[in-house]
Design goal:
The protein has about 210 residues and is of the alpha+beta class. About 30% of the residues lie in helices and about 35% in strands.
Amino acid sequence: MKLPSDIQNYAKKQMVKKILLFLCYLALSALILWGLIPSLSRHMGFIPILLLCLGAIGVSAYFSKVFFLVIDRNWKGKILDVKVETKTGSYSHYGKTRLCEKNTILLVVEKENGKQIGVTAETFVSKSEGGENVRIGREYQYAEHVLCGKPEEFLRKYHVGDTVYHFRGIDRNLYIPASLQSLTTCIVCGTENDVTKDVCYQCGHSLIKP
Protein backbone atom coordinates (compact mmCIF):
# COMPACT_ATOMS: atom_id res chain seq x y z
CA MET A 1 0.00 0.00 0.00
CA LYS A 2 1.37 3.41 -0.97
CA LEU A 3 0.92 6.21 1.53
CA PRO A 4 -0.30 9.68 0.52
CA SER A 5 2.54 12.20 0.16
CA ASP A 6 1.59 14.14 3.31
CA ILE A 7 1.69 10.96 5.41
CA GLN A 8 5.06 10.03 3.89
CA ASN A 9 6.38 13.47 4.84
CA TYR A 10 4.97 13.06 8.34
CA ALA A 11 6.80 9.73 8.73
CA LYS A 12 10.07 11.30 7.55
CA LYS A 13 9.67 14.18 10.01
CA GLN A 14 9.07 11.74 12.88
CA MET A 15 12.28 9.87 12.02
CA VAL A 16 14.26 13.12 11.76
CA LYS A 17 12.92 14.23 15.17
CA LYS A 18 14.18 11.00 16.77
CA ILE A 19 17.62 11.46 15.20
CA LEU A 20 17.85 15.11 16.31
CA LEU A 21 16.72 14.20 19.82
CA PHE A 22 19.36 11.46 19.91
CA LEU A 23 22.06 13.94 18.89
CA CYS A 24 20.92 16.40 21.57
CA TYR A 25 21.06 13.72 24.28
CA LEU A 26 24.42 12.58 22.97
CA ALA A 27 25.83 16.14 22.99
CA LEU A 28 24.63 16.65 26.56
CA SER A 29 26.18 13.35 27.63
CA ALA A 30 29.44 14.30 25.90
CA LEU A 31 29.58 17.61 27.78
CA ILE A 32 29.03 15.86 31.11
CA LEU A 33 31.64 13.19 30.37
CA TRP A 34 34.10 15.80 29.11
CA GLY A 35 34.05 17.42 32.53
CA LEU A 36 34.27 14.12 34.39
CA ILE A 37 36.88 12.25 32.33
CA PRO A 38 39.95 14.19 33.63
CA SER A 39 39.13 13.33 37.23
CA LEU A 40 37.96 9.80 36.38
CA SER A 41 41.09 9.04 34.38
CA ARG A 42 43.18 9.49 37.51
CA HIS A 43 41.21 6.82 39.38
CA MET A 44 39.90 4.58 36.64
CA GLY A 45 41.44 2.82 33.67
CA PHE A 46 40.64 3.17 29.99
CA ILE A 47 38.10 0.34 29.90
CA PRO A 48 35.69 1.79 32.54
CA ILE A 49 35.77 5.17 30.78
CA LEU A 50 35.07 3.49 27.43
CA LEU A 51 32.13 1.65 29.01
CA LEU A 52 30.79 4.97 30.33
CA CYS A 53 30.95 6.43 26.81
CA LEU A 54 29.18 3.42 25.34
CA GLY A 55 26.59 3.63 28.12
CA ALA A 56 25.96 7.29 27.29
CA ILE A 57 25.36 6.36 23.65
CA GLY A 58 22.99 3.57 24.69
CA VAL A 59 21.03 5.77 27.09
CA SER A 60 20.74 8.50 24.45
CA ALA A 61 19.49 5.97 21.90
CA TYR A 62 16.96 4.55 24.39
CA PHE A 63 15.39 7.83 25.50
CA SER A 64 15.29 9.27 21.98
CA LYS A 65 13.94 5.92 20.67
CA VAL A 66 16.29 6.24 17.72
CA PHE A 67 17.10 2.53 17.96
CA PHE A 68 13.57 1.80 16.74
CA LEU A 69 14.61 3.19 13.36
CA VAL A 70 17.12 0.35 13.01
CA ILE A 71 14.61 -2.45 13.60
CA ASP A 72 11.48 -0.71 12.29
CA ARG A 73 10.16 -2.14 9.01
CA ASN A 74 6.95 -2.00 6.98
CA TRP A 75 4.74 -5.04 7.45
CA LYS A 76 1.22 -6.32 6.83
CA GLY A 77 -0.81 -8.86 8.79
CA LYS A 78 -4.21 -10.19 9.87
CA ILE A 79 -5.76 -9.95 13.33
CA LEU A 80 -6.20 -13.42 14.83
CA ASP A 81 -7.35 -12.45 18.30
CA VAL A 82 -8.33 -9.38 20.34
CA LYS A 83 -7.72 -9.35 24.09
CA VAL A 84 -8.07 -6.77 26.85
CA GLU A 85 -5.64 -6.71 29.78
CA THR A 86 -6.98 -4.81 32.79
CA LYS A 87 -4.98 -3.60 35.79
CA THR A 88 -4.96 -0.78 38.31
CA GLY A 89 -2.83 2.15 37.29
CA SER A 90 -2.62 5.94 37.35
CA TYR A 91 -2.56 8.83 34.92
CA SER A 92 -1.88 12.55 35.00
CA HIS A 93 -4.78 14.82 34.11
CA TYR A 94 -4.42 18.59 34.29
CA GLY A 95 -1.45 18.23 36.63
CA LYS A 96 -3.19 15.83 39.03
CA THR A 97 -2.37 12.15 39.36
CA ARG A 98 -5.42 9.90 39.66
CA LEU A 99 -5.92 6.19 40.20
CA CYS A 100 -7.73 4.36 37.46
CA GLU A 101 -8.60 1.03 35.88
CA LYS A 102 -6.25 0.87 32.91
CA ASN A 103 -7.18 -1.39 30.00
CA THR A 104 -4.72 -2.34 27.26
CA ILE A 105 -6.04 -3.72 23.96
CA LEU A 106 -3.70 -6.51 22.85
CA LEU A 107 -3.86 -7.98 19.36
CA VAL A 108 -2.45 -11.25 18.06
CA VAL A 109 -1.43 -10.55 14.48
CA GLU A 110 -0.18 -13.00 11.85
CA LYS A 111 2.21 -11.33 9.41
CA GLU A 112 2.46 -12.25 5.75
CA ASN A 113 5.49 -14.46 6.47
CA GLY A 114 3.38 -16.56 8.87
CA LYS A 115 4.98 -15.19 12.05
CA GLN A 116 2.59 -14.29 14.86
CA ILE A 117 3.31 -11.18 16.92
CA GLY A 118 1.64 -9.31 19.77
CA VAL A 119 0.59 -5.72 19.08
CA THR A 120 -0.49 -3.16 21.66
CA ALA A 121 -3.30 -1.29 19.93
CA GLU A 122 -4.07 1.33 22.58
CA THR A 123 -4.70 1.90 26.26
CA PHE A 124 -7.82 3.41 27.76
CA VAL A 125 -9.23 4.12 31.20
CA SER A 126 -12.65 2.69 31.99
CA LYS A 127 -12.90 3.78 35.62
CA SER A 128 -11.11 6.67 37.28
CA GLU A 129 -11.28 8.80 40.39
CA GLY A 130 -12.61 11.70 38.35
CA GLY A 131 -15.36 9.58 36.80
CA GLU A 132 -14.38 10.34 33.20
CA ASN A 133 -13.23 8.02 30.42
CA VAL A 134 -9.75 9.12 29.40
CA ARG A 135 -7.83 7.90 26.38
CA ILE A 136 -4.12 7.47 27.01
CA GLY A 137 -1.65 7.59 24.12
CA ARG A 138 0.03 4.30 23.23
CA GLU A 139 3.48 5.62 24.06
CA TYR A 140 2.59 8.22 26.67
CA GLN A 141 1.57 8.16 30.31
CA TYR A 142 -0.52 11.31 30.30
CA ALA A 143 -4.07 11.84 29.14
CA GLU A 144 -4.37 13.07 25.56
CA HIS A 145 -8.00 14.06 25.77
CA VAL A 146 -11.22 13.17 27.55
CA LEU A 147 -13.71 10.90 25.81
CA CYS A 148 -17.31 10.71 26.93
CA GLY A 149 -17.95 7.11 26.00
CA LYS A 150 -17.99 3.50 27.15
CA PRO A 151 -15.13 0.97 26.94
CA GLU A 152 -16.96 -0.82 24.13
CA GLU A 153 -16.31 2.20 21.92
CA PHE A 154 -12.57 1.55 22.09
CA LEU A 155 -12.96 -2.10 21.11
CA ARG A 156 -15.20 -1.58 18.11
CA LYS A 157 -12.20 -0.59 15.95
CA TYR A 158 -10.51 -3.99 16.23
CA HIS A 159 -11.95 -7.22 14.82
CA VAL A 160 -10.63 -10.69 14.05
CA GLY A 161 -9.91 -10.85 10.32
CA ASP A 162 -9.09 -7.16 9.91
CA THR A 163 -5.90 -6.27 8.02
CA VAL A 164 -3.11 -4.43 9.86
CA TYR A 165 -0.49 -2.27 8.16
CA HIS A 166 2.58 -0.91 9.92
CA PHE A 167 4.60 1.82 8.23
CA ARG A 168 8.16 2.70 9.20
CA GLY A 169 8.37 5.92 11.18
CA ILE A 170 4.69 6.01 12.20
CA ASP A 171 3.77 4.93 15.73
CA ARG A 172 0.13 4.12 14.99
CA ASN A 173 -0.81 1.15 12.85
CA LEU A 174 -3.42 1.25 10.11
CA TYR A 175 -6.41 -1.09 10.53
CA ILE A 176 -8.47 -1.95 7.47
CA PRO A 177 -11.75 -3.64 8.52
CA ALA A 178 -12.86 -6.80 6.77
CA SER A 179 -16.43 -5.44 6.61
CA LEU A 180 -17.73 -1.99 5.73
CA GLN A 181 -17.57 0.55 8.56
CA SER A 182 -19.00 4.04 8.91
CA LEU A 183 -15.87 5.41 10.61
CA THR A 184 -12.19 5.42 9.72
CA THR A 185 -9.27 6.26 12.04
CA CYS A 186 -6.56 8.77 11.21
CA ILE A 187 -3.14 7.09 11.29
CA VAL A 188 -1.48 10.32 12.47
CA CYS A 189 -3.60 11.51 15.42
CA GLY A 190 -5.92 8.53 16.00
CA THR A 191 -9.12 10.55 15.57
CA GLU A 192 -12.15 8.72 14.15
CA ASN A 193 -13.63 10.32 11.05
CA ASP A 194 -16.60 9.64 8.82
CA VAL A 195 -15.52 7.19 6.14
CA THR A 196 -16.78 9.55 3.42
CA LYS A 197 -14.22 12.23 4.37
CA ASP A 198 -10.83 12.52 2.68
CA VAL A 199 -8.91 14.40 5.38
CA CYS A 200 -8.95 14.23 9.17
CA TYR A 201 -10.96 17.02 10.74
CA GLN A 202 -8.60 17.05 13.74
CA CYS A 203 -5.10 17.22 12.18
CA GLY A 204 -5.82 17.78 8.47
CA HIS A 205 -3.82 14.78 7.21
CA SER A 206 -5.13 12.47 4.51
CA LEU A 207 -7.30 9.56 5.60
CA ILE A 208 -6.25 6.12 4.33
CA LYS A 209 -9.33 4.11 3.42
CA PRO A 210 -9.80 0.65 1.88
